[in-house]
């Protein structure tokens, strides 16, 4: 196996020293960090963390649902993840009559566990370095040709490695395309809901407390993985049995103290710490504010309709939560990038990089090429955001977009298509339609349609607008709401797409004329055609150019910092991060403790409030101080704590593990003062917010009365 050359994220840390609490490290190379981990207190061996020949911590960690992390906590397939990671599954299992989301749910036997359709559990089997094979196949290709060659060789490697479809194989790029790893997974699809606290606790604090410390949120849920009798993946069946993991985590009930060792393993989504100053500047000035503006209006419209009708609330609450999470994220990221002066710090680092280039006869024009690429892209950056965040916000436009390939095929062939071709496009449309209609609620969607169309008109440069606006406005003022409302009424009253029965009838007897005459299709075709013809090529050309430049930039950073321990950007693959439990000072004269208690939750309590309500049973337990064995030595019940681990989105649900390999909590958020972290790590402020495992156990025990689950775990 070719040895990975780890690269130093110079631009990420804004200096040239990697700190112990910074870095998302590749598990199979964690030996390079082992001395430092031991110095911080780790008592496990390197093989205890990652080994492909016998069980290790990697076998207890899984990617949950495609976008989160979970950990095995029993030998019977029981897993722990975040409440917000299980949120969609819990909402889908809820109804107005049986509202599991609001009321909570605890299965007191396996027979009571509920199938969570669509939820997957992905276990890493091994990692292999395939860099040499990929780079040989790619050669000197650049731009779109480079992407096609990488895709082709990755597909070849994956197909020979998936054991005839029994395994999932992924080739992933690291260090901006300078390294490639093959990851082999086993995927389980029979996943069942076991337990969840009520939403008032699972999302305690709501949007107000999101990304904030101090925090008191019980952000956890429990599921169980099922397998066939041979412990292999199988679709849902009553004959399936609980999965037997190679490894599961023992649970510590002893609590944590400041300075304790803390290690997190999981699947962080995306970081961009190699981003150059021009990219950060564009994000702060254009991209982030545009995303926030679109999402702010979307959320206000959705909440208005959700508050009126519990059925609408259950239908849209999962989408609302996802939109809200990153609405606040982009607000916070922009604020912290500005506060920490990241653009200028990156420029300083880039000047040092250019000095090194000059001294070593490298291409000193590289940063100038970055500047040229970003300058050329900026006039279209806002359009790209509004196309994604405004035009595609209503479910109707996504439903119509699913038929656009069929429409285009009809156009190319003058309204006549062969049966097999027609079937292909109809199947594609049906898949897209099913995905979009889950978010369709007529009143909400109609208002979104009108307001997003208006917002697009106001904020995207006029010379970039699609032609349909002449029909929408018909001479009226572009900022007035009235023409957009009238147009939305016309579209929604005449399209066949808002009625699934009419859509299904169309799929059985497709008609080119019906597509051309449909108001929603005319609207969508105008937007999509305008973007795909005039602006998507510019966006893609910029992305390809940026990719080429970034690949060379990181390659030179490797040469500049040869011999130093370095880590790659997060890319939704398993990583290890280590640090310690640690308080911090967010402002002059202000110090935040490293833990919170149930006393603080009760102090925030507001009866019947959307964000700060709490179950009466919990308030009674608090009043009586009935915490059982889950109380801390100080007599209080600790709810959350913070560490200085380096994590990001995708780490939600990740286990926080002590020096002995025991579970001490589940990570669920980052703090406001360090929301620049996906672009620039800040050692002083960066914190991970963790739900204390004793709070989890207390709620399972005292509120859920699920003694069966307590007995199932190995609690120390």
Question: How does the SSE layout of this entry go?
Answer:
Elements: H1 10-13, H2 34-40, H3 46-49, E1 61-64, E2 68-72, E3 78-81, H4 83-92, H5 100-103, E4 105-106, E5 114-115, E6 121-129, H6 131-138, H7 143-161, E7 168-174, E8 179-188, E9 190-196, H8 199-202, H9 206-209, E10 221-227, E11 241-242, E12 261-266, H10 277-308, H11 310-339, H12 342-359, H13 366-391, H14 395-401, H15 404-412, H16 419-437, H17 442-459, H18 469-473, H19 482-494, H20 500-508, H21 512-517, H22 519-534, H23 536-560, E13 575-580, E14 584-587, E15 590-592, E16 595-597, H24 598-604, H25 616-623, E17 638-643, E18 655-657, E19 663-670, E20 688-692, H26 693-703, H27 707-712
Antiparallel strand pairs: 1-2, 1-6, 2-3, 3-10, 4-9, 5-9, 6-8, 7-8, 9-10, 10-11, 12-13, 12-18, 14-15, 16-17, 17-20, 18-19, 19-20
Helix pairs in contact: 4-11, 6-7, 10-11, 10-12, 10-13, 10-17, 13-17, 13-23, 14-16, 14-22, 15-16, 17-19
Determine the N-to-C terminus distance: 40 Å
* Number of separate helices: 27
Mean pLDDT: 94
Low-confidence stretches: 1-18
**Oligomeric composition of the shown chains:** single chain
| Share in β-strands | 5-15%
Report the strand count.
20
Helix-and-strand structural type: alpha+beta
Kindly list the characteristics that best describe this protein.
eleven-stranded antiparallel sheet, 20 strands, alpha+beta, 716 residues, serine protease, seven-stranded antiparallel sheet, globular
């Amino acid at each position: 196996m070719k040895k990975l050359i780890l690269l130093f994220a110079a631009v990420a840390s804004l200096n040239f020293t990697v700190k112990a609490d910074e870095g998302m490290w590749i598990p199979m190379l964690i030996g390079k960090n082992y001395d430092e981990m031991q110095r911080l207190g780790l008592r496990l061996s390197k093989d205890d963390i990652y080994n492909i020949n016998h069980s290790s911590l990697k076998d207890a960690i899984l990617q949950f649902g495609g976008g989160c992390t979970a950990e095995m906590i029993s030998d019977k397939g029981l897993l722990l993840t975040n409440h917000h990671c299980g949120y969609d599954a819990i909402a889908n299992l809820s109804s107005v009559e049986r509202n599991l989301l609001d009321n909570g749910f605890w299965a007191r036997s396996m027979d009571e566990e509920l199938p969570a359709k669509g939820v997957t559990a992905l276990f890493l089997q091994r990692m292999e370095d395939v860099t040499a094979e990929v780079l040989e196949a790619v050669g000197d290709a650049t731009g779109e040709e480079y992407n096609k060659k990488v895709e082709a060789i990755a597909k070849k490697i994956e197909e020979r490695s998936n054991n005839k479809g029994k395994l999932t194989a992924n080739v992933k790029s690291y260090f901006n395309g300078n390294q490639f790893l093959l990851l082999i997974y086993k995927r389980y699809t029979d996943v069942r809901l076991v337990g969840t606290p009520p939403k008032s606790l699972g999302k305690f604090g709501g949007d107000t407390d999101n990304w904030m410390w101090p925090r008191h949120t019980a952000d956890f849920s429990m599921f169980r993985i099922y397998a066939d009798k041979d412990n292999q993946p199988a679709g849902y069946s009553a004959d399936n049995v609980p999965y037997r993991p190679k490894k599961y985590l023992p649970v510590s009930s002893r609590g944590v103290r400041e300075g304790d060792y803390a290690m997190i393993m999981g699947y962080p989504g995306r970081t961009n710490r190699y981003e150059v100053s021009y990219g950060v500047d564009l994000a702060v000035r254009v991209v982030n504010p545009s995303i926030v503006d679109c999402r702010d209006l979307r959320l206000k419209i959705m909440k208005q309709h959700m508050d009126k009708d519990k059925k609408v609330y259950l239908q849209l609450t999962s989408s609302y939560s996802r939109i809200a999470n990153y609405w606040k994220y982009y607000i916070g990221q922009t604020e912290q990038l500005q506060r920490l002066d990241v653009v200028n710090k990156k420029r300083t680092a880039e000047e040092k990089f250019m000095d090194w280039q000059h001294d070593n006869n490298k291409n000193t024009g590289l940063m100038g090429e970055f500047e040229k690429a970003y300058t050329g892209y900026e006039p279209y950056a806002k359009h790209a955001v509004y196309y994604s965040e405004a035009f595609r916000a209503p479910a109707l436009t996504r439903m119509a977009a699913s038929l656009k390939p069929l429409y285009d095929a009809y156009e190319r062939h003058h309204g006549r298509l062969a049966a097999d071709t027609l079937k292909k496009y109809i199947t594609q449309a049906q898949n897209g339609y099913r995905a979009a209609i889950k978010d369709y609620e007529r009143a909400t969607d109609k208002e979104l349609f009108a307001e997003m169309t208006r917002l697009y008109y106001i904020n995207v440069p006029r010379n970039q607008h699609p032609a349909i606006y002449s029909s929408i406005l018909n001479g009226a003022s572009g900022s007035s709401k009235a023409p957009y409302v009238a147009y939305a009424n016309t579209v929604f009253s005449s399209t066949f797409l808002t009625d699934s029965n009419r859509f299904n009838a169309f799929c059985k007897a497709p008609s080119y004329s019906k597509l051309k005459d449909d108001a929603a299709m005319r609207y969508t075709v105008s937007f999509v055609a305008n973007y795909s013809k005039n602006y998507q090529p510019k966006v893609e050309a910029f992305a390809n150019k940026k990719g080429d430049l970034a690949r060379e930039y990181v390659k030179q950073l490797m040469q500049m910092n040869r011999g130093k321990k370095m880590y790659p950007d997060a890319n939704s693959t398993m990583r290890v991060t280590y640090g310690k439990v640690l308080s911090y000072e967010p402002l002059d004269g202000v110090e935040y403790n490293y833990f919170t208690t149930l006393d603080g939750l009760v102090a925030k309590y507001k009866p019947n409030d959307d964000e700060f309500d709490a179950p009466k049973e919990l308030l009674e337990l608090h009043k009586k101080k009935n915490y059982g064995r889950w109380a801390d030595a100080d007599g209080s019940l600790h709810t959350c704590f913070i560490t200085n681990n380096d994590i990001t989105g995708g780490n939600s649900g990740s286990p926080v593990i002590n020096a002995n390999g025991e579970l001490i909590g589940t990570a669920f958020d980052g703090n406001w003062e360090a929301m620049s972290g996906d672009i620039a790590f800040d050692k002083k402020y960066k914190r991970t917010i963790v739900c204390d495992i004793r709070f989890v156990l207390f709620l399972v025990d005292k509120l859920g009365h699920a003694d069966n689950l307590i007995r199932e775990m190995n609690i120390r």
